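Homework help board

Subject: predicted structure for assignment chain

Our instructor gave us this sequence and asked us to write out the predicted structure in token form, then describe one feature. I got the tokens but I'm not sure how to describe them. Can anyone check?
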Amino acid sequence: MIRTVESVPHVSAPVLAAYSYCEAVTGQQARNFAYGIRLLPTPKRRAMSALYAFSRRVDDIGDGDLPGEVKVARLEDTRALLTRIREGQVEEDDTDPVAVALTHAAGAFPIPLGGLDELIDGVQMDVRGESYETWDDLKVYCRCVAGAIGRLSLGVFGTEPGARGAERAFEYADTLGLALQLTNILRDVREDAEGGRTYLPADDLAKFGCSAGFGGPTPPEGSDFAGLVHFEVRRARALFAEGYRLLPMLDRRSGACVAAMAGIYRRLLDRIERDPEAVLRGRVSLPGREKAYVAVRGLSGLDTRHVSRRTVRRRA
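My token output:
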């Protein structure tokens, strides 16, 4: 069992202000993520906001317009800050609210902060402009930038006492992160191409005649773009199915948070599957009312009960 602290001591004014800053960043820049974490009790919601705000900082460095060498230097500065956080060297009156909030969160919950080192490693891959020949190669990247976030989040959520199979909880959290990241890659395929990035494995692109890339609103001539998308959708669905085995191991509100975030991405995947070329015409997204429905469904525990029944049938 992975234990968490459900109640925390009195939170000082500087720390509360730091958390408020992180929650504002999360609300403004992570609409899908924010739908999930608002279902959490206050201590966990604050901790997740601190994790997001730090992760957002790392991602912004990688996505910015600075020269590569400047990005590398800033990522290393961020890694040095993470070391200070890990060693408890950030005081409550520090001028960096993200560092203050994350330091407090790491003291309240058993967050495996090494996952943020992995995130930095993944963003460094982006800065170097790495591409991926096979799915196994791409998995390394996805584990750094998304699987690690799943494992970090599980440090906040914890698992329920006596949860069956809890020794595999981190594995399932990692796999769910991969599912979300592959969905992101499909959604952003044209945007990434315009930025000079290709994430889908070269082997897959070649198999479906898409090696020419995705610089426009239509597929490469003579390609089977729909076949490529459906192939990757099936891969993502298999990852979701495996990662969802985490849900019955979580308490009700943590499970609702995970089900809401994952549910939004699964519905994005459904839309992409129905109209593969939509990802070449613009960003596929869900309306707010549909996200709200997914959040309510997560809070109701429908997904958790479905996974639990399926797991019982497998054992039988």
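Reply (TA_rk): Your tokens look well-formed. For the description, you could write something like this. The two ends are 24 Å apart (CA to CA). That's the kind of observation they're looking for.
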